Design the sequence.
């Protein structure tokens, strides 16, 4: 059985028109599906309205106790339930989940780690209540999916000791896809602001249609794949090695186009 796991970021889910377009196309994807979403821009805006300054290190949010409350309300509440309601309006029977719900995603709090900063130096960073995933309850998710339910997963996990944890949505999507690969033929789709992986960052038409494991190192050596795209592709190939059939990087408006974007395969 085919299963498509789609990860969409906050820039799309927080814009009403973009979200409507995305969900129209998501609803048209054939077969079983899962939607994983972010919502970081809304979380930042609400935190700042509450007078809570936000700190980002290497693209990751430092999550103190007050920020954890905000991201939980935004990700697992406002954004998640808005998506679920709009999918129900499209006839898609969906269920909004955080990692704590039915113990779907169990994580541990990330220990302080050395992070390479923009200036090349390393700094020991305590990310606070940020989680790294230990386990995804694939059996439960597969049971829901088999019953015709579409899980809508927010980037909030838990540690099984009563603590919620903020977890990167890309990581959640990859781990959910890998966990379900034993029960389904899984395609993982990352929605991206560009049309795919570009050979020339200044040319939106220079999409590389296929990147294999053998081609990937050459693209890195040439500087075609660099910056934030590098860890995204590394995670994608890790998912493929762990059983995911294919990873697609494309724009949200093209998720129902089988010929769009960049495909990653072994």
Sequence:
């Amino acid at each position: 059985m085919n299963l498509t796991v789609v990860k969409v970021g906050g820039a799309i889910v927080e814009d009403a028109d973009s979200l409507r377009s995305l969900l129209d196309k998501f609803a048209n994807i054939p077969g079983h599906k899962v939607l994983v979403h972010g919502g970081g821009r809304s979380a930042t805006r609400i935190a700042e309205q509450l007078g809570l300054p936000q700190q980002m290190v290497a693209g990751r949010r430092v999550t103190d106790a007050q920020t954890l409350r905000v991201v939980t309300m935004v990700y697992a509440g406002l954004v998640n339930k808005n998506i679920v309601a709009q999918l129900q309006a499209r006839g898609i029977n969906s269920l909004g989940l955080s990692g704590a719900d039915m113990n779907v995603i169990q994580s541990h709090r990330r220990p302080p780690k050395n992070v390479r900063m923009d200036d090349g130096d390393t700094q020991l960073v305590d990310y606070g209540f940020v989680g790294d995933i230990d386990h995804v309850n694939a059996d439960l998710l597969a049971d829901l999916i088999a019953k015709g339910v579409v899980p809508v997963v927010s980037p909030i996990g838990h540690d099984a000791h009563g603590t919620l944890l903020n977890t990167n949505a890309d990581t959640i999507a990859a781990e959910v896809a890998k966990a379900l690969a034993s029960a389904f033929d899984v395609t993982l789709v990352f929605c991206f602001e560009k049309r795919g992986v570009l050979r020339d960052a200044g040319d939106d038409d220079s999409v590389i249609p296929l990147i294999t494991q053998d081609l990937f190192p050459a693209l890195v050596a040439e500087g075609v794949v660099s910056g934030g795209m590098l860890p995204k592709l590394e995670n994608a190939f890790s998912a493929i090695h762990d059983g995911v059939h294919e990873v697609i990087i494309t724009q949200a408006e093209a998720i129902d186009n089988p010929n769009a974007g960049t495909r990653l395969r072994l």
Observations:
- The first helix runs from residue 10 to 13.
